[in-house]
Fold each of these.
Amino acid sequence: MRFIAARRWLIGFMLLLTACSATSGDSTSPSASTYIQNKGSDTIVNLALAWAEAYQTVKPEVRISVTGGGSGTGLTALISGTVDIANASRKIKAEEIQAAKANGIEPVEHVIARDAIAVIVNPENPIGELSLEQIARIYRGEVNNWSELGGEDRPIVRLSRETNSGTHVYFLEEVVRLGDKENKEIFSADTLLLPSSEGIIAEVSENPNAIGYDGLGYVTPEVKMLAVARTADQPYVLPSVESVNNGQYPISRDLYMYTQTGAPQSVLDYLAWILSPDAQQIVTDLGFVPVLNTTAGK
Amino acid sequence: METAKGERWITWIIKMSGYSSILFVSLILFFLAREGFPALGEVPLKDLFGARWYPIEGYFGIWPLIFGSVLVTVGALLIGIPFGIGTAVYLSELAPAWIKNILKPIIEILAGLPSVVLGFLGIQLAAPFFRQFLNLPTGLTAFTGAVLLGFIAIPTIVSISEDALNTVPSAYRHGALALGANHWQTIWGVTVPAARSGLLTAVMLGVGRSIGETMAVMMVTGNAPVLPSSLNALFLPARTMTATIASEMGEVATGSTHYHVLFFIGIVLFGISLAVNLTASSLALRSRKRAERLLS
């Protein structure tokens, strides 16, 4: 619910920005302001809006328009040269790079944040680690008692975000279907679909039968995070900013912005600012994982 | 002359505001039909009334949602009817005037309590309590929703039942007492049966109030679209039609199949409410006719 509220608020803010730019357009000379077109992934749209909003205080002369539509939409727009920055929650595909090159555009990749999903249980639950396969079997409804996983004799209560949440879709693809595109498995019908992150945290912190998942940034100390292994013979890793950044935690992905070579200075400045501590704090605030500047000093 | 003109204006304005509700209802109906009926063409009937609701993968079975709504509403009535009618009987037949003067405003406050507040109490208090007390896997069940809905429906049931009981002519009560019936026999043997149609109307309006309630239900029923297999389903999570519309409408692409199916669910809900209201008003009408017959 925090997520949706934030989005509504930001869309409201975007309208306000538009209104402001419309009214102030007469007083300031139009040449003084630079426009950056930013489009793509719906997962990133809140973050991109928050950045665009915060950037107004850093460089008021730069106007950034942010739209969603999906990663593919953003990359297509970049290929056809209609946007400056494309947001994508996946890596650009080889055929998209080819199409861009055919258009005389060389895409440049920037990792701007990471998205990690923590799997959580009640602190009373003795289970501390599960493999992706085990989590998938729980959510498909194939495992229904904690004792089957070496825990107490308790029924498993599966909690999920509503189907309209990007986190739900990501969890479906990467965990329930284990990243297999051909796999058409879906959540077990008795999975509880809760309308908010808070609802999941509240139920997990109160109910020892429950298992849930949530963006790493939303997890509170009242619940226990599980260490997750890609397969049973690999190490079990707890989610943290470090384990997400070094790629050890399996349920995480990089979030990208794509530009083209020879992008205007204003776009480069904006991307440099996005990796600054101030901008990465916004990443944390919105429940994503900040990019640790491993190439500091560059 | 001036006054007559002014009065004509005022009459016209009042008349228009009266007719406006007809206009609004027909506009809503038109809009619902326009947005909802395309679903019938896009989803085969067999799938639309299928057993699985998972719209992002094209499963549009609305049976679990209809059953969820019915289950929660029936549960709410099982709680709301005894409490509601009991309270009404107490208020109308037994309570001394000073208790009545305290109780009635409190019940009105209960009626005005926002359902989101009840939902919050449900998540924080009722759900954990029911999980431990009834030893359930989770407290987020149809039963928890039914209890909250019962509380939401009670004020409606109380106020209409009390009106119905008050309209029973006092000659009935006096007659019963004169024949030697005691106070309880008078209430259960004469007064309540005489007000039966009014009480049924109260129950029907309570049904209407419960089946349309959204927020509290969405917060505490767990929203799992399970098709109930036994009576035990009352103590398992359920997903209602209202909660589905409320949680999914915000993010759905306008004009998509999912969007049309959500409106179709709206039509089903509208149909159910309409049926409930028609039943309620036909019962009220019948009671009046019988009262007239008795008096003649």
Note: The first helix of chain A runs from residue 2 to 24.
Amino acid sequence: MEPVVHLRSAVALLGRFPALAGVDLDVQVGEIVLLQGPNGAGKSTLLRVCAGLVTVTDGEAVVLGIDLRRDRRAVRRHVGLLGHANGLYDDLTVAENVRFWAKSARASDAEIDGAMTSLGLDGRLAALSVSRLSAGQRRRTALAALVARRPRLWLLDEPHAGLDAAGRDLIDDLLRRAVGQGATVVLASHELDRAHGLADRVVTITGGRAIEQPLPTTSPPC
Amino acid sequence: MSTSTPSASTPSTSTPSATTGTRATRVLGLVTLTLFVALVIIGFVIARPDVNQYDAARLLFVHVPAAEMAYVAYITTAVCSAFYLWPRTRSATWDRVAGASAEIGSVLIGLTLLTGMLWGKITWGTYWVWDARLTSTALLFVMFLGYLAVRQLDAAPGVRRKRAAVLALVAAADVPIVHFSVQWWRTQHQAASLTAKGALEGTYRFAHFLGFVAFLLAYIWLMMHRNRVAMLQEHLDERGLDAAIAERWREGASAAEAIPS
Amino acid sequence: MLRTARAVAAKDLRIERRSKVALTQVLPFALVVVVLFAFALDPSTSLRAATPGLFWVAVLLVLLLAVQRSFAVEVTDGAFDAVRLAELDPAGVFLGKAGALAVQLLGVEAAMAVAVLVFYDPTARAADVTPFHVSVGAIMLFVAAAVAATTGLVATGTLYGALAAGSRVRDTLLPLLVFPVVAPVLIGATRATEATLGIGKTTLSDGWPAVGLLAVFAAVAVATGVLAFGPLLEEA
């Protein structure tokens, strides 16, 4: 079975700096993979590479069967990336933001409404201007835009950040359901406890490289 | 285990030489130098002062070839930028040549403007007039500077190159428009007299031809050296990259030891 | 492509409607510049003759502000990334942003034109000075010139705005890039405006060739933008 993500000795540069210095990673369909590691290790860059936003200058990089070194743009319509920033327009409302981003991916109105509901963004909240939202609510808005596009590969950078416990449960359910419908998830998170409950596998990223780690069978020390 | 990153621009020799001179450039340099000496001799000694322009005409020995080469340089930059942007022929070499040509072109245009201003002061009585040729040359100069500024942008190499290339092409498309628009508005430059140069006496004509060849060879000589310097710079960057990768691994290894497994 | 353009333009204009930056900051800036020129120049002589040129220089300054704002909106929350991820047609994005800019700039120009007529027109008491000559034909000429000039300006501005967006030196880089390139617009627009106002013994028929020049520039600028925006947007 062809892996959804296949990286071998992948090198990616940010300016002159080798953010990824030779990453090996394989992700199979339906997996939820957690990326952990210290700040600056390259987790965000790895996600962006998989989204086709960053050039891979050396090594192999194949996502969803598309060779990123030859044509990284083609992969974008199949992935959804939730980056550090939310990519929202402050002066527009929640509904307008989600609609703008989802429409460009040709999502139907029903899908958009469904996405917003599944993230608790309906009703009064939908008409609020983004600038009036809390950080957690903004995160959920960005996520709704992603959900509406129904990507095959979900790339999430700190999805739980800024959310309260209910919000985090919401996301976890969302991810499990997405995987149930055939999607694959790669997320970077510092929320190790929660993510361990969610993820099938843990990969440590450090110094621009990846080190596989077995999932602890007992709960990790707090 | 080190990652080797052969880029399209790396020359086949693995160890670059200490200088950018080779036999070819030395021969070329000598020829160019000889031509310039000849040009100076003709310009100062042999040619007679022009009736209308007096000794200022001697400035034209530098001004005209410099202007011509400046335009050659600018067209080279534009063409190389086009090749760089075209996906089929994309290669860092085009970008390097375009950049080198732009740098030399900027110097040439500066020289052109300077000698032109001095010439104008003597013959017209003023340093500057806002006519088609001068204005578009001045704007071309500024656009070149903008291009060089974009080449220094703090961004990934690929980003920088693409943006600079787009800029070069837009400038190339714009300069004719600027020229025609100013020309449509005013004309005072002795456009006629420059072609009439050919009608002037034989010494001037020969000197003009000599000057053009001398400047052309000088341009090529400078391009070769500048190009090689750029290649050496890229070598350096690659070595730096390997070092940076190794450094990253070291920092990663020490951090990995700190993670509880 | 057109669908994307409409969506992007609508989005930009809606943002403007909510935040009212053009209304509360750019427009006052434009009016202040118009008034400042009046302080610097002698009203009955040099100001009159220089009015067309000053007007369009002021428009250039306003263009800079508007372009910076247009791209600042995208860069602040990483929307630029999202634009690439969403695979929006780059040509459509270009046309949309340029279109929104054009609408805003034309509005500011209209206000400035009124201000110029009010502040710069010498009173009828000065016997040796002929007032500005404004007729229907003149207004048509001015509108045509303004539309053509504005199109060329926003197209160039949007293209270079994307080029400079996100870089640390963008505020100083943008003028350096834009101003040399739009010199023909300045020439043509000033000439056309001179003809509109009857300055320097020009007649209305002198102005239309200028409009032709502006139209050519606008066409080239838009075509260039549509073609070149893709590679620019690609890497940020």
Note: Chain B has one domain: 25-233.
